TrEMBL record:
Protein name: Na(+)/H(+) antiporter NhaA
Domain of life of the organism encoding this protein: Bacteria
Gene coding for it: nhaA
Chief place where the protein resides: membrane
Pfam families: Na_H_antiport_1
Membrane-crossing segments per the record: 38-56, 76-98, 118-138, 150-171, 178-198, 204-220, 232-249, 255-275, 296-317, 329-351, 363-390, 402-420
Region Disordered: start-end pairs: 429-450
Annotated function: Na(+)/H(+) antiporter that extrudes sodium in exchange for external protons.
UniProt-listed NCBIfam families: NhaA
Family affiliation: Belongs to the NhaA Na(+)/H(+) (TC 2.A.33) antiporter family.
Membrane topology qualifier: Multi-pass membrane protein
Record keyword Magnesium present: no
Keywords: Antiport, Cell membrane, Ion transport, Membrane, Sodium, Sodium transport, Transmembrane, Transmembrane helix, Transport
């Protein structure tokens, strides 16, 4: 999005900065996304809490019976349990939005400039590699659990943003954008890991067949993007069936079906002129789809997935202790709570040294550390990878879920301890010095780059 400008500054100007403000249009758009994800995060947490209570209540058998209830059409490999439908089907909507968001940022957003994208992207990579290495080190003596190395690599967008909305309402916008960029990029990395490392029994025929509806979907979306923009109902009638067919064929191929969601998101055209804020540009098809699908993802798809995935029978304090002693849970907790901040903060600091750039004057390194701690909230994608690693309902999967939940809560508490204090200071500064706006309605801070 808009986190860095590490290029050499012209003579007479100061050093380049990292995590600097981007365009005002970008700040407004990201602010809208964050507000929607905040609501989704609250629903996600509520669904997970309900699942945990139900799974550990006297009526726990009914929860697992509901989760494992199967229906569908077996010849198409679609006779799945409700939990599998949520993970393979509903979560594809979430990853469709991830694909849309990434394409919009790299085509029409501030990240289309390499100088502005290198730091958040590199930091996201660091936030993936370091937790994975920590998990591997902790599980070296337990080869059967090494398969879960990717579990602590992803940040949950909705959960992290919901926490940030509660504790960091006055933090600089660049920090929020940095967090969102990290979460989106490492979700892309996570889905790539799923595609390449968690695919078994690959069936090439349906995979090749999936390219036909995908190509037709992309062709129609680009050829008639203005028509679909004006006639949204036509997109549902024509493009949605093609998307469902693509999803079904990718699922039948053995590749996790959420990959189809990302590919379909990438296939939607993005109008570059929108980023410039042209008054006649109008909303593009990507913007229309994002507006329509985000409430479905945040309000329905992700909470339902959390409900069916977060329910684990802990077995009291003894069972909780046994789960936390498992190298799987320990690797996840240390990876998310310690590895994420080290990877993100370390890479960001290293790039400032390599590029000889300075941190933007609007905030401090302690703010970046707080956001890096917040990135340790790994929930939705981590739960998905845990199921793919060990199989739903297995002992290691249950222990992985305990580790994910414990790490997410711990990361949220540590981030809150750091960012709440910083938020008070920024709030006091805002009260002392109100942001002025010109007649064009754009705050001066987004226009003054000197």
């Amino acid at each position: 999005m808009n986190q860095t400008t590490p290029s050499t500054p012209p003579p007479g100007q100061g050093k380049s900065t990292v995590l600097s403000r981007g365009s005002y249009a970008e700040a407004l758009r990201i602010g809208e996304i964050l507000r929607k994800e905040t609501v989704g995060g609250a629903l996600l947490v509520a669904a997970a809490v309900i699942a945990l209570i139900w799974a550990n209540s006297p009526a726990s058998d009914s929860y697992f019976a509901l989760r494992d209830f199967k229906f569908g059409y077996e010849p198409w490999h679609l006779e799945l349990s409700l939990g599998a439908w949520a993970a393979d089907g509903l979560l594809a909507i979430f990853f469709f939005l991830v694909g849309l968001e990434l394409k919009r940022e790299f085509v029409a957003g501030d990240l289309r400039q390499i100088s502005k994208s290198i730091v958040p992207v590199a930091a996201a990579v660091g936030g993936v590699v370091v937790p994975a290495l920590i998990y591997v080190v902790i599980n070296l003596t337990s080869p059967e659990t090494l398969r879960g190395w990717a579990i602590p690599t992803a940040t949950d967008i909705a959960f992290a943003v919901a926490v940030l909305a509660i504790i960091g309402s006055h933090l600089p916008s660049a920090l929020r954008i940095f967090l969102l960029t990290l979460a989106v990029v490492d979700d892309l990395i996570a889905i790539s890991i799923i595609a390449f490392f968690y695919t078994s029994d690959l069936d090439v025929t349906p995979l090749l067949l999936s390219l036909i509806p995908l190509a037709l979907y992309a062709f129609l979306a680009h050829k008639y993007r203005h028509f679909f923009g004006m006639k949204a109902s036509a997109a549902w009638v024509i493009l949605l069936p093609l998307g469902v067919i693509t999803w079904a064929l990718v699922h039948a191929s053995g590749i996790h079906a959420t990959v189809a969601g990302v590919l379909l998101g990438f296939a939607v055209p993005v109008l570059r002129s929108q980023a410039a804020g042209g008054p006649d540009a109008g909303p593009g098809l990507a913007e229309i789809f994002e507006h329509r699908f985000r409430p479905i993802s945040a309000g329905v798809a992700v909470p339902i997935f959390a409900f069916f995935s977060a329910g684990v029978a802990v077995g009291g304090w003894e069972g909780l202790g046994s789960a936390l002693a498992d190298p799987v849970a320990l690797g996840i907790i240390v990876g998310l709570v310690v590895g994420k901040p080290i990877g993100i903060l370390g890479v960001t600091w290293l790039l400032t040294k390599v590029t000889r750039a300075e941190l933007d004057k609007s905030f401090k390194w302690i703010d970046v550390f707080g956001v890096a701690l917040l990135a340790g909230i790994g929930f939705t994608v981590s739960l998905l990878v845990a199921e793919l690693s060990f199989g739903q309902g297995s002992l290691h999967d249950d222990h992985a879920k305990v580790g994910i939940l414990a790490a997410s809560v711990l990361a949220a508490l540590l981030a809150a301890a750091v960012l709440t204090t910083r938020n008070r200071q920024y709030r006091a500064e805002e009260e002392r010095e109100k942001v002025d706006a010109d007649q064009d309605g754009i705050p001066d801070v987004y226009q003054d780059r000197t």
